[in-house]
Amino acid sequence: MSFCRNCGHQLSPHQAFCKNCGTKAGTASKPSSGGEKTTIVTAPEPQMRSGHGAKGSLSTPVKWVLAIVLILAAGLIGAHLYVSKQFTAEKAVEEFENAVTQKDYQSLRAILEKSGTDAQLSEEELKGYAAFLTKDNHFEQIIKDLKEEAAGTEFSPIVDGAENKLVTLVEGPKKFLLYKQYFIKAFPFTVQASSNLEDTKVPFNGKSKLLKKPGEEVTLGKVLPGSLTLKGVYTGKYVTLTSETAVDFKEASDNIVTAALELDGKYVTIYSNGDDADIYANGKKTGLKTGNFDSFGPVSTDGSVEIYAVLNRASGAIKSNVVKIEREGEVNLQFKELAAEQEKEAAKSRVMDVLARYAPNASPKEQMYMFMSEYVSRSVQAFNSRDFSMISSYLSPTGPAYAETEKYIAHLEQKGITEEFVNVEILDMQATETGFKVTTREEYNIFYQDSPNKHMVFESIYTLEAEDFGLREYSLDKTTTIKSEDIQ
Asked: Within a 10 A sphere around the Cβ of 400, how many other Cβ atoms?
């Protein structure tokens, strides 16, 4: 009886292969029940059949299973190695660099969102941020510093020369619970603003901030450094003013940047020759009065604001000139009616000052008496001396009295008449813009060669001019003889 030399399965005569294990048939010994060996004779070796392995080989199903297992193991190892490389710190730096340089704002937004960057991350903001990194900073150096950080185990922020934090590597949650993730986090800048005007409103990130005091720095919020323009709006009683200024993030320090809003609102000082007159701006009553405040504004200096004043008088309301505000400084609101009156008053004041020189501590009438006494006395001396030069300085060269006095001296000389001044009295005097109107009563003794001597009293009206050096007669307007009697 023949048995398989591999598994011991009984073989049929002339069977070339074992049906149990596929081993080639051959001679094998198997112990008998009596302890003797039994000789197994095998048939000659035929050709190997397809589908059966050689001595010691595995079956086909086993081989397929083993192959699949090996393939799966290799795939898992490869996938592990590939996936692990996708979440390294170096990969995060590479993705950030590509997003910035290639202006891939969608990818840049995703990177910064995953890192927890505290900013709105609108496309406009991201555009400005990318420009800030590449144009206003040395982006190659930033990437180099990030790569050096990625090679370590602890990360520090990348800063610029003004100690502004720009970016940093951060570790995120594990991917598939196995792989560490890394992202680039950007540091926003705190934006502050100031205004040269009080109560200026500044829109920022959908809200409005109020800058209450001029020059006070107010925090608006945070934003990624880049392209940002602030707009200030001032709404006052007289004008609405706006101003825009670009935030210069290159001037930031410690991640804080301040922008100054300069609104073209100026203050003007209003002068007027009429006090307590109501001030109007663009036809509307402001509630302010001339002479009661230091400055007016703020207003625009582009000529869009017109101001004037109205003064209520017993005779009716009068209006000043209208002024367009086109520059900072002084505005003069003048009432023509008052100007004429004030000019007259000023002139009268000037002539009174001239009169006061004749008797500083006396009354105006006494001062006029001093002048007229001096003038009449000097005139009589000139008449009797027949010397016009003695009186010429008391006469205005432009008035009729100058020539008339010269002729009168010649007349007296021709008639041989002399005079004696007795007295002068001031009956009335009125100040004018150029001098005085004076009414006098004068007494003379007049001596004739060919007729009786006379004591005469005259009432005369003079026009006097006030010059810097004193009073002068301009004209003798009227002379009336009040009394004439012979001297015994």
From this structure: 15
Task: Look at residue 256 and tell me if it is in a domain.
Answer: yes
> Any idea what the CATH number is for the domain that residue 237 is in?
2.60.40
* Strand ranges inside 106-217, DSSP E: 158-159, 165-175, 179-186, 189-195, 200-204, 207-211
Query: Can you give the residue range of the structural domain that contains 199?
Result: 189-261
The structure's pTM equals 0.55
pLDDT in tens, 305-336: 999 999 999 999 999 999 999 988 899 999 99
**DSSP label at residue 343:** H
Using alpha carbons only, what angle is made at residue 216 by residues 214 and 218, rounded to the nearest 5 degrees?
125
CA-to-CA dists, residue 151 to 92, 157, 169, 175, 408, angstroms: 12, 14, 11, 20, 123
Please enumerate in sequence order all residues whose Cβ is within 8 A of that of 213, keeping only pairs 6 or more positions apart, or say none: 198
Please check whether residue 441 is in contact with residue 417, taking contact to mean a CB–CB distance below 8 angstroms. Answer: no
Q: In this structure, how many other beta carbons lie within 10 angstroms of the beta carbon of residue 480?
A: 10
Are 386 and 448 part of one and the same domain?
yes
Give the bridge partners for 364, in sequence order.
none
Which is nearest to 306 in space by CA: 290, 291, 328, 321?
321
The two structure tokens encoding residue 460 = 């005369």
Nearest to 483 by CA among 426, 429, 422, 430: 422
Residues 471 and 386 in one domain: yes
**Alpha-helix runs per DSSP H in 4-138:** 60-86, 89-101, 105-115, 123-135
Q: What is the CATH number of the domain that holds 379?
A: 3.10.450.50
Please name every residue paired with 332 in a beta bridge, in sequence order, or none if there are none. 271
The helix (run of H) or strand (run of E) holding residue 142 is: helix 139-150
- For residue 23, the cross-strand partners are none
Same domain, 120 and 141: yes
Residues 487/455, Cβ–Cβ less than 8 Å: yes
Mean pLDDT of 345-355: 93
Tokens of 385: 């001396």
Based on the domain organization, do 368 and 474 belong to the same domain?
Answer: yes
In a domain, 72, yes or no: yes
| pLDDT exceeds cutoff 90 at 58 | no
End residue of a domain, out of 186, 214, 239 = 186
List Cβ neighbours of 131 (8 Å cut-off, separation of 6 or more). Answer: 226, 227
Q: Is residue 111 part of a domain?
A: yes
pLDDT tier, 34 (very low <50, low <70, confident <90, very high otherwise): very low
Beta carbons of 486 and 454 less than 8 angstroms apart: yes
Q: Look at residue 204 and give its three-state secondary structure.
A: strand
